[in-house]
Inverse folding.
């Protein structure tokens, strides 16, 4: 019984939050990895693109709510996501046209493009704050819990409760669908194959008649979709604040690099590695250990390895350790 | 226009902008811009050394600036005897254990190449470290937490904190460089970004060190206090002679005194940077930057030179960070934001002209001037645009959004410069 309680506590406080957070990071990291693999630079504006996409979705969500549209138990934001993706796609395609294309034509060094993306980051950051302001915004509606703590206790008779929020379940389901669709696209369709070919060897791909402009456009649209979905899921699950998204850049980069930049499978693996380490290292294990160990061994302290304020630091310690041991990430990534 | 003339003209423009601010707004604002402009110029000199001359992409400037700020507290605040008695030695012992564990792990990794042994050392060492260290921290933080709860500093004169800030940042840079400089450019950038966040996280959370987010205020000053000047009959008389009241005169005098100190530091660092740039060492660094492979083939130790310049540039940022905290008179770890302390400095270097020391200084002044002045300009612009509009949510929203135009403007400036004048206002010769 105690072991069951320990398992439930572990699932409630570590497994479920980490799986949800990991899925959000993985979607973000997939975008970073695609840009790195195909457009060949680290996009510092990624977090702010996410904030922008979520903002558009929020605006549509509010509009739909005011018209009385809803999805019943599911959040209305799901209806608004396609519009958010469309808005973000327009933004990134426009940016590519006005900003990045010039540098690609000049074949500048990747580090110059990174700097350009810093400029883009400032601009996106400004736009989002001008339109929606810098404060917390709430746009979650629908059913709050899939399984609430009380129901779970009544159902199982355990001391420890398990609560699964709708948004957590939704995150995982949506992430699985999106990742499956992305891999189907990359492996099965003509455009997807040409994207992979372009990423592996640009010159060879050009020789075999792949249109680089099209590959780049498709990449941006996919990235727009990935960041918007990841941003909305994160916003529904936690809360929406432009600054938080700017900060998310750090764990997302860490996830992409830990997995191996340019490698989509690596991005997903990296997302979960980062999420599980962040949650695991900053969680106070007292409760779980208290159930799992015999009374004589039960810990006195909180058994927390690091205080929760070190959440962001954890992702970077992992990043540095992985880079030192495997310089291109866990699954062999690219190097420019 | 040749480069020398252009340099003079642009620096004259900066002088006109600052003096114009004095006449049009207030001399207090003008001196505020001047002081932070001097500090920003030093920071961008440090970054220019790394990027412009050596081609290292460091996005962790904030961390070094913060280490400089920490140095002010550690150097100039009086030690808290009670806290030292309560747990100071235990903390030091804990830290020593931590360092010993790291050294042992590195040695084991290098000599024995046994991954499991390294893991055992690190994990076992971590728990030993926490066992010793945590007790000390609890004891120290319990000492009168509303005013101290930290170990305090060495009680040395505050000017000593500036070189010590440089040393502290250099030490941090050495550790970071040792681990991260082997990485390629993008990876290095992201690693430095992350490490600077770690530095801030430590400063926010380790209360025993510098009170964390509870802040340390009342740092000693290298210049007199305004109130003392106002109480000095001689000063009041002189101020009256200039036709100023004592309050205004005293604030301006203090700001001018800071400006003088900062200008001395800037001139020394600028001269050293110019000498370095023109020396054989500078030529070698640029050769490494332009073609690493060729430089390596010529027998240059690229890794060592990168580490060297990374440490030097970061030390300069540390000095600037210490100066800034001295000027503020308080250390507030919560206010270190990468947008302001890392990315804005990058805008300064790129706009000024990377690879040109005078360009970096110019960029520091111009971008800082804009950072301060875009706000009132945006407010004015927004009230002009909304003047004809009916009162309502939209008008309020537009007026409110003026404060965010600052970021947008910086981004647009950066993009425009990168596009149309990629070598900056004062290009490298």
């Amino acid at each position: 019984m105690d072991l069951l309680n320990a398992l439930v506590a572990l699932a409630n406080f570590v497994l479920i939050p980490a799986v949800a957070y990991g899925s959000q990071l993985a979607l973000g990291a997939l975008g970073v990895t695609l840009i790195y693999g195909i457009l060949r630079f680290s996009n510092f504006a990624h977090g702010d693109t996410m904030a922008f996409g979520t903002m558009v979705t929020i605006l549509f969500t509010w509009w739909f709510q005011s018209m009385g549209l809803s999805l019943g138990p599911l959040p209305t934001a799901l209806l608004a996501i396609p519009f958010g993706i469309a808005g973000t796609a327009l933004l990134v395609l426009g940016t590519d046209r006005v900003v990045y294309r010039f540098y690609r034509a000049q074949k500048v060094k990747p580090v110059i493009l990174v700097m350009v993306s810093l400029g883009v980051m400032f601009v996106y950051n400004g736009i989002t704050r001008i339109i929606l302001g810098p404060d917390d915004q709430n746009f979650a509606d629908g059913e709050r819990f899939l399984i609430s703590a009380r129901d779970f206790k009544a159902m199982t008779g355990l001391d420890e409760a398990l609560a699964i929020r709708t948004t957590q379940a939704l995150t995982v389901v949506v992430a699985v669908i999106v990742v499956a669709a992305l891999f189907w696209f990359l492996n099965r369709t003509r455009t997807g194959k040409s994207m992979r070919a372009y990423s592996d060897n640009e010159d060879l791909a050009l020789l075999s008649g792949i249109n680089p402009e099209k590959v780049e456009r498709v990449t941006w649209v996919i990235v727009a979709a990935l960041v918007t979905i990841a941003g909305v899921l994160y916003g529904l699950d936690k809360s929406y604040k432009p600054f938080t998204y700017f900060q998310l850049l750090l764990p997302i980069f860490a996830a992409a690099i830990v997995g191996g930049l340019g490698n989509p499978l690596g991005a997903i693996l990296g997302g979960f590695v980062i999420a599980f380490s962040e949650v695991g290292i900053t969680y106070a294990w007292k409760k779980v250990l208290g159930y799992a160990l015999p009374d004589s061994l039960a810990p006195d302290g909180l058994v927390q390895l690091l205080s929760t304020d070190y959440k962001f630091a954890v992702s970077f310690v992992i990043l540095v350790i992985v880079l030192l041991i495997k310089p291109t990430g866990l699954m062999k990534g690219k190097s420019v | 226009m040749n480069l020398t003339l252009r340099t003079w003209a642009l620096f004259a423009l900066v002088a006109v902008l600052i003096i114009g601010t004095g006449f049009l707004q207030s001399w207090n604002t003008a001196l505020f811009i001047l002081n932070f402009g001097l500090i920003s110029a030093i920071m961008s000199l440090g970054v220019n050394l790394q990027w412009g001359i050596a081609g290292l992409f460091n996005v962790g400037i904030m961390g070094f600036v913060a280490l400089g700020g920490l140095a002010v507290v550690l150097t100039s605040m009086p030690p808290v005897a009670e806290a030292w008695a309560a747990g100071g030695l235990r903390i030091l012992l804990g830290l020593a254990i931590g360092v010993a564990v790291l050294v042992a792990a590195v040695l084991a990794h290098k000599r024995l190449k046994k991954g499991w042994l390294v893991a055992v050392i690190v994990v076992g060492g971590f728990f030993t470290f926490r066992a010793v260290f945590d007790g000390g921290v609890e004891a120290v933080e319990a000492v009168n937490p509303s005013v101290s709860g930290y170990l305090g500093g060495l009680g040395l004169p505050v000017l000593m904190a500036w070189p010590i800030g440089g040393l502290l940042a250099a030490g941090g840079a050495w550790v970071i460089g040792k681990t991260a400089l082997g990485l390629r450019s993008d990876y290095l950038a992201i690693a430095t970004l992350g490490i600077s966040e770690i530095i801030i996280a430590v400063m926010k959370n380790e209360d025993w060190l510098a009170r964390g987010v509870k802040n340390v205020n009342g740092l000693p000053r290298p210049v007199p206090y305004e109130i003392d000047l106002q109480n000095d009959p001689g000063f009041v008389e002189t101020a009256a002679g200039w036709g100023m009241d004592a309050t205004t005169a005293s604030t301006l005098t203090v700001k001018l005194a800071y400006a003088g100190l900062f200008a001395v530091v800037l001139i020394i660092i600028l001269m050293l940077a110019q000498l370095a740039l023109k020396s054989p060492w500078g030529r070698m660094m640029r050769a490494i930057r332009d073609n690493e492979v060729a430089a390596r083939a010529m027998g240059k130790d690229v890794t060592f030179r990168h580490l060297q310049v990374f440490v030097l540039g970061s030390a300069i940022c540390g000095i600037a960070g210490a100066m800034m905290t001295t000027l503020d008179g308080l250390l507030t770890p919560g206010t270190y934001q990468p947008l302001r302390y890392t990315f804005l400095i990058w805008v300064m270097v790129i706009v000024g002209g990377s690879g040109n020391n005078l360009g970096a200084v110019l960029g520091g002044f111009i971008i800082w001037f804009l950072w301060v002045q875009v706000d009132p300009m945006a407010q004015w612009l927004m009230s002009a645009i909304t003047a004809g509009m009916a009162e309502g949510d939209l008008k309020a929203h537009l007026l409110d959004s003026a404060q965010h135009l600052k970021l947008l403007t910086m981004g647009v400036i950066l993009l425009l410069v990168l596009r149309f004048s990629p070598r900056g206002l004062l290009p490298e010769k």
About this structure: The beta strands of chain A are 145-147, 164-165.
